[in-house]
C-alpha cells in the first residue's frame, strides 16, 4: 500500500510549496472544534465502515488497499474516524 506521504506528493498541485499537503493532526483539530475554536481546516470524517466491510468480504477493495485495515484506509484518505454510538438517544 502506498504511504500517505507519497499520496500527498502525488496530489500536490503544481507550483505548491513543498510540504503544503502535510497530513493534519486530527486530535488537535477535533479538540479545537469542541473548544469552539477554528480547527485550521476541514476535519473530514466519512463513514467508510460499510464500504470497507462489503468490499473486503467480496475481495473488491482496490488492489493497493487489499491488505489494508480500516484504519489504514482512513489514513490513506487523510480522513478522521467518525466515532459514534449506535442506539437510542436519551
Task: Set down the secondary structure blueprint.
Elements: H1 4-11, H2 26-34, H3 49-58, H4 70-76
Description:
- The protein has a domain of 38 residues.
- Helices cover 38% and strands 0% of the residues.
- The protein contains four helices and no strands.
- It has 90 residues and is mainly alpha-helical.
- It starts with a helix and ends in a 14-residue tail after the last helix.
- About 19% of the residues have low confidence.
**What is the radius of gyration computed over CA atoms, rounded to a whole number of angstroms?**
16 Å
In round numbers, the mean pLDDT is: 77
Share of residues in helices: 25-40%
The end-to-end span amounts to: 42 Å
Question: Helix- and strand-based class?
Answer: mainly alpha
The total strand number stands at: 0
Major pleated sheet: none
Query: Order of SSEs, N→C?
Result: HHHH
Strand content: under 5%
Estimate the global geometry from the Cα principal axes.
Answer: flat
Low-confidence stretches: 4-20
Total helices: the number is 4
Question: What labels describe this entry?
Answer:
single chain, 90 residues, mainly alpha, 4 helices, 38% helix, flat
Amino acid at each position: 500500500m502506498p504511504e500517505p506521504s507519497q499520496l500527498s506528493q502525488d496530489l500536490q498541485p503544481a507550483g505548491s510549496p513543498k510540504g503544503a499537503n502535510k497530513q493534519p493532526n486530527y486530535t488537535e483539530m477535533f479538540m479545537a472544534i469542541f473548544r469552539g475554536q477554528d480547527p485550521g481546516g476541514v476535519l473530514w470524517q466519512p463513514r467508510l465502515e460499510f464500504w470497507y466491510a462489503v468490499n473486503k468480504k467480496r475481495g473488491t477493495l482496490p488492489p493497493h488497499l487489499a491488505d489494508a485495515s480500516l484504519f489504514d484506509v482512513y489514513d490513506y484518505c487523510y480522513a478522521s474516524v467518525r466515532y459514534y454510538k449506535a442506539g437510542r438517544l436519551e
